[in-house]
Here is the input.
Amino acid sequence: MSITNRSSRWSKVTLGNADTLNKVAPLAPSIPAGALAPPLPSPAPADGLLKTSEKDSELQIVITPPTGTVNYDSFVLLLDGAEQGVAHTFNDQTDLPTFTMPLTAAARTEGPHQLSYRIEYFSGSQWESESTPLMVDLHHAGSPETLPMLAGFDPRVLSDGLSLDLLAELGDKVEAKIEAYGGSDPYSSPAPGDVITPYIGSIAGDPITLSSSIAARANITVTFTKDHIDKVTVNGKYDFYYTITDRAGNLSPNSFAQEVAILIKTGIN
Here is the structure.
């Protein structure tokens, strides 16, 4: 989801001309890079998606005091405009370094947020920084429903089973389709960065990562390669299914399975 940053603005304009010359607009706060999910491909803007593994962690938000900050100026962390924790005030320091302010897990509800801070200057004026997007996604793809069964197999694969001759005719691969998935929970529909892993029984195949264009399609092609199929050691009936890991790291349960008879092992019945 794209989130548009608010522009910086005066919350209370009381600075005199001399003070204004010594102040610069506060930079947006930073979320620790290790807490963020892999970014979306360029040119998509950063969305500040947190890793699911951070859901119970207290984040240490990084703030760089702007030029013009002096002792006894205070910083207040804001999430969607609401104050978080206690103010940070510099006292009797000659160097005003970059510092961190905690953002609790309890404050981070699922969905998009805007993270900023307010400087309350000792002179009595205030200035709110530009905002940084922050996104929380705690639901797996398709949640809470089970992901749909693979569809679109060549009919002969289902009716006759997968023989060596048929596999060769199909180009040494078996293709199937995932029809649009997305449960009733928000943020569970196809999205760029979703990783789909196909399975034959318990054997995982090569994962595919959805691009923006693929995620927007009505159905998504899943390929079972010959190398994947050759890992089956005994002829028989096997479940063909898939899982999806989203960009935040939420892993779906197994999809509904399609049973396919594999008949490629020569001399084995």
Q: What stands out?
A: The first strand starts at residue 9 and ends at 12.
